[in-house]
Amino acid sequence: MIEISNSNSSSGLQQKEISANQDIPLNYLDSIITGLRNAGLIVNYSGKSSGYILTRSAGEISVYDVYRAFEPELTLVNCSCPGNECKKINICPTKDYWFELNNIIKTQMMSTTLFDLIPNPN
Predict the structure, then answer these.
(1) 34: phi then psi, degrees, rounded to nearest 5
(2) d(Cα 65, Cα 71) in Å, to the nearest integer?
(3) How far apart are CA 100 and CA 93, in angstroms?
């Protein structure tokens, strides 16, 4: 996503360029591209032979948005998964710690955008 957001190409960044620049095999990158497209984070600029562009500015796409393209929710421990009922939830001495840590990480991911991660050219 940073590679795409950092591209200066007016027609987007082609998958083979991303693969070469990031040293990611094309077949593996294909599944990543599919996830990002399905999440509405990237699109083909103008058809099959064009490159990929972001659907919003880099400052509007959070790290959490990218994470959610591949995972349903951030959960550090199974007991914090939605729908997972732990029998010891009312007596668990570490429950609050794990839930708070999960919230801290999620909040950080939500408040960090792709733009924040783009290397500064200074």
Answers:
(1) -60, -45
(2) 10
(3) 13
Backbone angles phi, psi at 75, to 5 degrees: -145, 115
CATH number, domain 2-117: 1.10.10.10
The predicted model scores a pTM of 0.86
* Segment 66-102, tens digit of pLDDT: 999 999 888 888 776 667 777 887 888 988 898 899 9
Full 3-state SS string of the chain = CHHHHCCCCCCCECHHHHHHHHCCCHHHHHHHHHHHHHCCCEEECCCCCCCEEECCCHHHCEHHHHHHCCCCCCCCCHHHCCCCCCCCCCCCCCHHHHHHHHHHHHHHHHHCEHHHHCCCCC
Could you tell me if 41 and 4 are in contact, meaning their C-beta atoms sit under 8 angstroms apart? no
Which amino acid does the sequence have at 80? S
